[in-house]
């Protein structure tokens, strides 16, 4: 139906107002998205902008950022970069990942798409962050295994990842994600 609607809207050649609760459906044929909550506009713009840089954790969740990690913003020697300690492990992100102003030593939430996280001991590129955790549990889900990964005391989250193989409970594993794959919000 998305293709049918997209074709119809293109043929009509007029502005169409389409209301939906499905973010993917909205992106399928929108030139401009307006995200509303409780009757208030929370963010508007081209779909690619909203998905790349959501302005709130709530909008990020709508845009598919389904993995949350709590951390603390650390002072950074580079004004174009953020350094966030997640379970005592530093990750480096572009300053553009931060929504709003947050002072160093503030508590933040780092959000990622689970599909942007890779498991393994080797980083996919030099521009990747690495975190180390321990497997809490592996559950078989048809084709792959859902792995619950504990990043350590104070992490504020257990990450759920998909793996093509079962990982033993207690095993230490590394995860990697590209620096520009994350968005960061204040936890005030």
Automatic annotation (TrEMBL):
<dbReference type="InterPro" id="IPR013611">
    <property type="entry name" value="Transp-assoc_OB_typ2"/>
</dbReference>
<dbReference type="Pfam" id="PF08402">
    <property type="entry name" value="TOBE_2"/>
</dbReference>
<keyword id="KW-0472">Membrane</keyword>
<comment type="similarity">
    <text>Belongs to the ABC transporter superfamily.</text>
</comment>
<protein>
    <submittedName>
        <fullName>TOBE domain-containing protein</fullName>
    </submittedName>
</protein>
<dbReference type="InterPro" id="IPR047641">
    <property type="entry name" value="ABC_transpr_MalK/UgpC-like"/>
</dbReference>
<dbReference type="InterPro" id="IPR027417">
    <property type="entry name" value="P-loop_NTPase"/>
</dbReference>
<feature type="domain" description="Transport-associated OB type 2">
    <location>
        <begin position="120"/>
        <end position="185"/>
    </location>
</feature>
<keyword id="KW-1003">Cell membrane</keyword>
<keyword id="KW-1278">Translocase</keyword>
<dbReference type="InterPro" id="IPR008995">
    <property type="entry name" value="Mo/tungstate-bd_C_term_dom"/>
</dbReference>
């Amino acid at each position: 139906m998305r293709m049918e609607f997209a074709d119809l809207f293109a043929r009509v050649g007029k502005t169409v107002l389409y209301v939906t609760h499905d973010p993917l459906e909205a992106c399928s044929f929108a030139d401009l998205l307006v995200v509303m909550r409780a009757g208030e506009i929370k963010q508007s713009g081209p779909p690619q902008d909203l998905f790349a840089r959501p302005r709130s954790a709530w909008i990020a969740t709508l845009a598919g950022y389904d993995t949350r990690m709590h951390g603390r913003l650390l002072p950074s020697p580079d004004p174009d970069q953020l350094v966030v300690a997640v379970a005592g492990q530093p990750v480096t992100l572009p300053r553009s990942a931060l929504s709003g102003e947050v002072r160093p030593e503030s508590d933040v939430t780092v959000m990622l798409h689970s599909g942007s996280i890779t498991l393994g001991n080797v980083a996919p590129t030099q521009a990747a962050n690495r975190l180390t955790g321990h497997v809490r549990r592996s559950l078989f889900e048809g084709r792959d295994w859902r792995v619950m990964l504990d990043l350590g005391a104070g992490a504020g989250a257990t990450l759920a990842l998909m793996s093509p193989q079962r990982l033993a409970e207690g095993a230490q594993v590394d995860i990697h994600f590209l620096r520009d794959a994350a968005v960061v919000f204040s936890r005030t």
